[in-house]
């Protein structure tokens, strides 16, 4: 039965960004069925978390929970627990390293930090959220990665940094600002919705899609002509997220009325 579930899930995600993720997660699930204990995944983006929930739902004896180190974290580790496991897992194995630099002379972005980490040969799923300010970044990571960062991360790009451990409890819960946008659009094409929600032209939105800057439900948009539907989430690199909250029908001129929620 378990092998059938594994094959079905892998077949469903085959050829998508989720294929590699689902393979790792079903291996964890089947290990739990054998041991009747628990296992923790690497850090998952929201799409990966949806896959984890799907995996747990397809294995009847397993439940799943998530933690990203602080309230509101976008990237989180999944913990799969067998329903017959008598113990209580006490830790998700998450740590935090803070890297500081002189903010008077350098400005570093999320991309700069991520590039420096990947340049160290670090696997992306060992790293959670990167909380960047003008002169520091808190790097949420697996516990086993914290010592490596302390020993090896001394530069981000050409900027020297000093690293130290930081207390996860010192990270304030993430507060998202939400702006509701009511608009009429020519169609539910993703370039039209993105233009209305992010305040740009359709040609600029199409250009951003061609440059792989936009994702739909955390997967790359296939093309500017791809249609979206109520409940879909659009995320634009550097611009935040956009939820298609409502599709309210059409006007007399044949335009579609939508309510969008933009999270900043």
From TrEMBL:
Domain RNA-binding S4, by residue range, is 188-250
- What keywords does the record list, in alphabetical order? RNA-binding
Q: Which CDD domains match?
A: S4 (cd00165)
Query: InterPro entries, per this entry?
Result: Nucleotide-bd_a/b_plait_sf (IPR012677), RqcP2_RBD (IPR040591), S4_RNA-bd (IPR002942), S4_RNA-bd_sf (IPR036986)
Q: Which PROSITE patterns does the record associate with it?
A: S4
Please list the coiled coil stretches. none
Top-level taxon of origin = Bacteria
According to the UniProt entry, its GO molecular function terms are: RNA binding
Q: Name one Pfam family in it.
A: S4
Show which residues constitute the signal peptide: none
* Full protein name: RNA-binding S4 domain-containing protein
